[in-house]
Amino acid sequence: MKLIKSIYFHQQFFVYISIISAVFLLSFWFTALYMLAWFLVLILLFLVVADVFLLFKKTKGIEARRILSEKFSNSDENPVPITLKNNYGFKISAKIIDELPSQFQKRDFEYLAKLNPSENYNFEYEVKPVERGEYHFGNLNVYVSSPLKIIAKRTVFHKNEMVAVYPSYIQMKKYEFLAMSNRLTEFGLKKIRRIGHTLEFEQIKNYIAGDDVRTINWKATAKQSKLMVNQYQDEKSQPIYSIIDLGRVMKMPFEELKLLDYAINSTLAFSNIALRKNDKAGLITFSKKVDTIIPASNKRTHLNTINDALYNITTKYTDADFGYLYAFIKRKIAQRSLLTIYTNFEHISSLNRQLPYLKAISKNHLLIVVFFENTELDQLLNNNAKDVQEIYHKTIAEKFTFEKRLIVKELERNGIYAILTKPKNLTINVINKYLEFKAKGII
Q1: What is the pTM of this model?
Q2: Partners of 439 in the beta sheet?
Q3: 69, 131, 236, 438: most buried, per Cβ within 10 A?
Q4: Which CATH code for domain 169-194+235-440?
Q5: pLDDT by residue (tens digit) across 328-342?
Q6: What is residue 152's three-state secondary structure?
Q7: What is the edge-to-edge ordering of all strands in the sheet holding 417-421?
Q8: CATH number of 1-166: 2.60.40.10, 3.40.50.20, 1.20.1440.20, 2.40.50.100?
Q9: Whose CA is closest to 167, among 249, 77, 247, 263?
Q10: How do residues 96-114 score in pLDDT, each as one tens digit?
Q11: Are strands 366-372 and 417-421 parallel, antiparallel or unpaired?
């Protein structure tokens, strides 16, 4: 039974059947073709038996392996390598069908390859998840046919493998490299000029060419009879909290990714940069109440703790309670910290409801409110209106865009920093603002 289930007819087989059927049909008028048709049937039967013998004489004629990483990066292209090995003594054709997870909604994956005897063949394809969670791969099916191309032998490998999709660690590594190599301007990040020194003194050292002459310590110079300069270092270990709104406003999808997932990817990359800059990174998620609290820390394993927490969070179906958030921050975060709140405001009225709580938070902390441009309106704004209905739609779109700018002005008027960004530029803009504050010594 197992042997029969692994036998499939090759497409070429049906071509042969069609030719034989045509000969039988013509034999109705040309009787001499009747014997030829049966002769072709016998040849086809012989070829079927020979092809079965060629493909099934070896139990492991083909070897295949799907190589999956321990985890995938959300919203990024993740490679899935496939390796094949031909153990037959002849050239084979292989059709590979991989059963992808249901989240991808792809049912037509197919790859064709030709392998010489004893050849190892490698290829890879890429998948782009847009949701966090568990992704279950099904069977890796390989259909092998000989040069006769009458039948195909199906072999199944790697049944039911699971990969967890985590927040985008690929973006995290990319921005870490850029931040540490001072190549941020290549990705739109502004080059910040440092304004003076912070107040954290490190040591007095001998002057060497290139030192800032403004840091010369004249008293030490007089005592040592040689130029001495003060050396300063950046203030370290400042608490940095990423606060994510889990309310329904974060369910809006842009380019197949929800605002929540944009915020999660940004939080992971931002926390990594903060830890690399020797600051303490923490995480808070809230809706009607605070769901997750990870106190700010700069331990080496702290990024893994944040990553695991981000993997499990999801949006709620209610509006977020900023009043509860203010009370929680006042009670739990005593030290002045940089708080970055990821949320979204579509109307100035929605901001006005939360503004008293944001102002109260900003009295004791350095607060950044991050919200999003509605990029779905860009096409309406850029197109020329041709009729009354299009004029109406464009006017409404401009009204929404104008209200977003009003929200920024209102926040800045109340002493609150604001970032209005397109979802795809979120991580860049948040890291840029953080590095700007570091350069100016605000934190």
Answers
A1: 0.80
A2: none
A3: 438
A4: 3.40.50.410
A5: 999 999 889 999 999
A6: strand
A7: 290-297, 280-286, 239-245, 338-342, 366-372, 417-421
A8: 2.60.40.10
A9: 263
A10: 999 999 999 888 899 999 9
A11: parallel
